[in-house]
Amino acid sequence: MSEEKETKAKKKSTSIDPAVLEMMEKAEAEGISTAFSRADETKPCPIGHEGSCCKHCHMGPCRLTGKTTVGICGATKETVVARNLARMTAAGAAAHSDHGRGMAMTLLAAAEGEAPDYQVKDEKKLRVVAHYLDVPEQGRSKEEVAVDVAKVALAEFGRQEGELLYVRRAPAKRQEIWRKLGIVPRGIDREIVETLHRTHVGNDQDAEHILDHAMRNALADGWGGSMLSTDISDIIFGTPGPVAASANFGTLREDEVNVVIHGHEPTLSELIVAAADDPEIVEYAKSKGAKGINLTGICCTANEILMRQGVPLLGNFLSQELAVLTGAVDAMVVDIQCIFQGLVEVAENYHTKIITTSAKAKITGAMHIEFHEDRAMEIAKQILCTAIDNYPNRGKVYIPDVQDRLVAGFSHEYISYMLGGSLRESFRPLNDAIMMGRIRGAAGVVGCNNPRTTHDDPHLYVVKELIKNDVLVVTTGCNAIACAKQGLLTPEVMDHCGAGLREICQTIGIPPVLHMGSCVDNTRILTVISQSATEGGLGEDISDLPVAGFAPEWMSEKAISIGMYFVASGVTTWMGGTSPVAGSEEVVRIISEGWKQKVGAAYYFEPDTEKAVKEALEHIDAKRKALKLEEYSPKKYAQSKTYLPGDYFAPEKHGAYSLK
Ligand code: CUV
Fold first, then answer.
1. Which of 61, 116, 213, 218 is the most buried (most CB within 10 A)?
2. Mean pLDDT computed over 122-130
3. Could you say which DSSP state residue 492 is in?
4. Which residues contact 622 (CB under 8 A, 6 or more apart)?
């Protein structure tokens, strides 16, 4: 291949996002290192990559490869691979659950009057959550209830015995399965600590046994820390309902102070959104020559403030460094998780201030303005003023003119409301549509970006194929952002979905791809499927439902925990990319065939995206058959519009929207 052709092919395989490709060219021309270029330069260690490296003691690391089949202690490949997967689960669960703990502490501080900038915004949800947590609420003020809800929530982290209270939100049959297997999570922290204990040298050395506990640990995340996080965020900031917004680099403004919010928690970002509306702050921005303040977001903190405030999305995980390269970002405010240390180095070439804000996460070389909830608004304003002061330091600005529209904000409360109206909120119409075969099934498509694959390509492929095949898609995290950037969260997408699904979506008035929020909000999906399972007509348990899970471009340990709690809850899940358990066929068997027997669902790592979708559709059809539902026939509800491979719904393909 000629050099030019090779470069073109390489560029094409980097991303399907035109704005990202444009910015990549700029990075290359300026010789700036990004995750994309570093991924090219750094090959993953093949032994660690497949889970066969044990570095849990200082006799090693033992690399179980070639003739070496056991570690110094005698640990087998099965044990080592299982340990590594369990530890990934623990770290992922710890990250999400600690975020949940933070939300509970904010609620407590707010209710006790120690965080005056926060209030209970959604009292209805507070009272519903009180009921789940056995907190009496009748005849009590919302503050009284909130104090108790926060305290009970915090106690769930330190619970030593019994069962997490939210386990009762799962269908009865599912709870029985967990009890029979002895994997009902006790306390959130306890399960995480126990995973670390069991996987310390010389403890649990039976792969299946290690992995049973990994499931318990993941369940503590899904039905514990993460679910509490979603609920309490809704209580403090409001339960989302549909909002229209826009996405991609075109959400940056040349003539306004651009503040990019990146990370995961809504606590500070919500206040930044409020502070940006303060007339004094706006005036201050004007005094520096800007027309105003423009907020746009990256990763899950962006999803949080999109869902509740309609703040636009700049991009997902792999867009973070490229955002700085525009020269238009006056401050990037980060809190926790998914933040590249590389941002600081990129920012050295531009005027952008990278501002870390969490007491848990500093980055060498970044500015640190620590966030404290008792002075929340004051700090939010201080951060905005720092960005405003930086506006006059801008050099040349380059913003790709790429932007698409989106509709987000589909909380489970809203989904059930739109299905039945306020008097008859229920999942009945959804179940009926599935039973009739108009909707073939449903799938959650979630998770990160990973520079080891073409950015956003597997995400988009999976979603498009599913809706074309009459599968309703719910999305969160970086998949949701990928969908947003390519116009998949718009009504126009209806033309690209199967006729049956289209008919239902048009009747109910929803898009076929529902943005349900951030990664902790995957628990909204657990709630939807639990309610769908208990509604009737589709079996009695989550594992009876014709549903599937996907994380086509996962990279974080949180995604491993999420995938695992979906499987342990009964949803067969396909993770994309290469497998972190490929080092042991036995572990691969345990988490697929083995778990199918145990929990009624399999955990697959499948690098071939087409194959994964095909298998998932077969799985959905098999579930339909087992339920004795009408056989799904795509022809029954008129012909669907044909979709051509490579036909992404990029703005240029269906007419660019200008929202400026
Ligand atoms: Ni929490 S965990 S890269 S932002 S989805 Fe995006 Fe979502 Fe993965 Fe991180």
1. 218
2. 97
3. G
4. none
Instruction: Kindly give the distance from the C-alpha atom of residue 339 to the centroid of ligand 1, in angstroms, as a whole number.
Output: 10
* 145: three-class secondary structure by DSSP: helix
Q: Residues 92-114: what's their mean pLDDT?
A: 98
Class of domain 406-640: alpha beta
Q: Any idea what DSSP says for residue 629?
A: P
For residue 124, the SS3 value is: helix
Q: What phi and psi, each to the nearest 5 degrees, are found at residue 293?
A: -115, 130
- CATH class (in words) of the domain with range 77-237: mainly alpha
As a whole number, mean pLDDT of residues 75-99 equals: 98
Q: What token pair was written down for 247?
A: 């996405």
Residue with tokens 């066969």: 52
3-state secondary structure of 482: helix
Phi, psi of 358 (to 5 degrees): -90, 140
Q: Which of the following CATH numbers is that of domain 249-393: 3.40.50.2030, 3.40.50.410, 2.60.40.10, 3.40.50.10860?
A: 3.40.50.2030
Ligand 1, atom 4: nearest CA belongs to which residue?
A: 299
Q: How confident is the model at residue 650 (pLDDT cuts 50, 70, 90)?
A: very low
Counting Cα atoms < 13 Å in the Cβ hemisphere of 493 gives 35
Look at ligand 1, atom 3, and give the residue with the nearest C-alpha.
448
Contact 305, 238 (CB under 8 A): no
- Does the pLDDT value for residue 60 go beyond 60? yes
* Mean pLDDT within 418-427: 73
Q: Are 331 and 323 in contact (CB under 8 A)?
A: no
Residue 251 and residue 296 in contact, taking contact as beta carbons nearer than 8 Å:
yes
Domains 77-237 and 249-393 share a fold: no
Please say whether the beta carbons of 478 and 299 come within 8 A.
Answer: yes
- Binding-site residues, ligand 1, Cβ < 6 A: 264, 299-300, 316-317, 338, 447-448, 477-478, 518-519, 556, 558-559
